[in-house]
Amino acid sequence: MADSNSTCAAIMAAESEPEVISILRDYLSTLGPERTALLPGSLMALGINHAKEIAQAAVELAQREAQAVADSPEAGFLKEVGTVLSTAAMKLVVLACGVETQEAEG
User: Fold this and answer.
1) CB–CB of 12/87 below 8 Å?
2) Dihedral in degrees, nearest 10, Cα atoms 70, 76, 78, 84
3) Which of 69, 71, 72, 106 is least surrounded, with the fewest CB atoms within 10 Å of its CB?
């Protein structure tokens, strides 16, 4: 499984939405079937193609994490994936704001 810290660092260094999506997809592909089964089904079904899907997945995962028992291994895993998704969502907002600022200045 990919390290969530290095994945978050790569996401923060990304310079475009497609790059963020690629990093996130790579991360999710390393989780394996047992771990993937713990995630909301919609997360994998969405395919993660757009910023909106990442934000939706982050919210759904936060809900799933809130339902998990705090000390369970599943809760820790869900928190880790939630951190990656939230980082990706935040980075995409920053990238979008940069594009909007450039368009307004241009």
Assistant:
1) yes
2) 130
3) 106
Per-residue model confidence as pLDDT tens digits over 43-78:
766 667 778 888 888 888 888 888 877 777 788 888
Distance (Å, whole) CA 22 – CA 31: 15
Q: Give the three-state DSSP class for 8.
A: helix
91 Cβ neighbours under 8 A, 6+ residues apart? 11, 12, 14, 20
DSSP labels for 18-77?
HHHHHHHHHHHHTSHHHHHTTS-HHHHHH---SHHHHHHHHHHHHHHHHHS-TTSHHHHH
Residues with Cβ within 8 Å of residue 82, at least 6 apart in sequence: 58, 61, 62, 65
Stretch 30-44: mean pLDDT, rounded? 82
